[in-house]
Each structure stands twice: as C-alpha cells, then as structure tokens.
Amino acid sequence: MRIEAAIAARTSFRLGEIEVRFDGPVAVVSGPPGGDTAPVEVSLEVLREFVRADDHGRYRPLPGARTLPHGWEVRCASAGELRTAIDEVYPLALQHISQHERGDLRVVALDDVLQRQSGRYALAAGLSGKGREAACRALCSRCVRTPSWQEGTLPEEAIPCPEACSVLIALCREAALWESSPPAPSPANPTLPFAQFEAPGNEVREAYLAAHFAAPPPGPVQHRPARRR
Ligand code: SF4
What would you report as the CA-atom Rg of the chain, rounded to the nearest whole angstrom? Predict the structure, then answer.
C-alpha cells in the first residue's frame, strides 16, 4: 500500500509525472516543473480538462502519456480531494496499484485484447509478434504505466497497466498495414497529434518504424582467401 501509506503518513511522493507534497493541512499535487516561473494554480473542478492538452496544445488521448503540461499545481484540502486529483490525471491508477498490491488485479493478455477487436480494428490481430513488441516499445515507453501483461516483475513504483489500451490497439492496426507495405521513415515532428499514426512524422510512428524496419548491423567483413600462385 505504497501510495495509500504515503497519503496516510502525509509524506511526499511521485506518481508518474506528478509530485505530491504536504503543506500544513493541504496536499499539493504538481505537474512537471515549468522552469523559473511560479506554477499556475488549477482548481480541482477544471483539472481533468486542463490535463487533456499538452504544452503544444495537442489533445492527450493517452492519459498516461509523458506529455503532461508543465508548471501547474492543485491544492487539495483533504485526502479525498487528493485521491480525486490523482484520479483526474491518471484515471484508475490508484485502484490498479491497490489491486496489484493485493494480488487481485485482473490482467488480460495482449493477444486476447487484439483477437476480440472487430470492425476496422480487427486488422490489429494480424500484427506479427515482432511488430507487437515494437509497438509496445514505441508507445508504452512513452507512458507512465507499465504493462502487467508482459513478462517480468513490475518495479515497486510502477503504475500497472492491466490491459492494452485503445491507443495501443490503434497503433497495432496501423502497424499491421505497414508490415505488408513498409512506409519510408520521416523526421519526427513532436507537434503532430500524438495518436495520428497514419501521419508521416508522428513521433510514435517514426519510433516504431525505426525499431521494426531498421537494417540489421553489418556483419564481419568476409576476406577472400589469397590465391595461390
Ligand atoms: S497499453 Fe501501453 S500505452 Fe496503453 S496504457 Fe498500457 S502501458 Fe500505457
């Protein structure tokens, strides 16, 4: 009960990109530091809307994306308000952490999620194993959550991800199309919409293409045996 224990003991902690500290009776939740200027105070009522856009004004379709706007804070008068603030920024994160710690987090395998897709997303199940790995690397590495459906033990500070999200499914769908006709890479453009994977220059798309289609490193130079005269 790492986070709940910290809330009960009123000790500072970090969760993803946010930091929580206690200032007398108030809990202060702050986003990534915004440089030399004092943080803007945001009310709990508008917090969900506020964190929907990143510093470029781009919509954030993935709440866990490491693209929270910089330089803001919310002051919470009670532990209940603090939990609400965390839930506005990272929906269900506290619930999933508690379930993981109790051992009753319901985890769904990536293949099960892809196989149950229908309509335009049914294509996603056709992505190869190598493609699925590259998609997880390109997207989940940009998210504060850690997939519980992958092999390995979660780090203690992790926010578990029990099931592939809709953004990963959308990436797997595009990536399945790219496997039959690989697009040319383009320079990454961080101002393009985060989940517009069909747009050349989209950061996640370019990271995927670089990881999946990169030419293997050259092998050792083969020397021909010298001819005998
Ligand atoms: S599937 Fe990946 S990107 Fe989506 S919420 Fe889980 S960890 Fe984050």
Answer: 22
Say which residues have a Cβ less than 8 Å from residue 109's Cβ, sequence separation at least 6.
149
Contacts of 215 (CB under 8 A, 6+ apart): none
Query: Residue with the nearest Cα to atom 4 of ligand 1?
Result: 165
Give the ipTM: 0.99
* Domains by residue range for the chain, with CATH: 2-91 (3.30.1360.190), 110-213 (3.30.70.2320)
For ligand 1, atom 3, name the residue with the nearest CA.
Answer: 140
Residue 105 has pLDDT above 90, yes or no: yes
pLDDT in tens, 158-176: 999 999 999 999 999 999 9
Please say whether the beta carbons of 31 and 68 come within 8 A: yes
Answer yes or no: is the C-beta of 204 below 6 A from any ligand 1 atom.
no
Q: How many helices (H) and strands (E) does the chain have?
A: 8, 7
Give the position, in ligand 1's atom list, of the atom nearest the Cα of 64.
Answer: 8
**Rounded distance from Cα 48 to ligand 1 centre (Å):** 19
Any atom of ligand 1 within 6 Å of the Cβ of 147:
yes
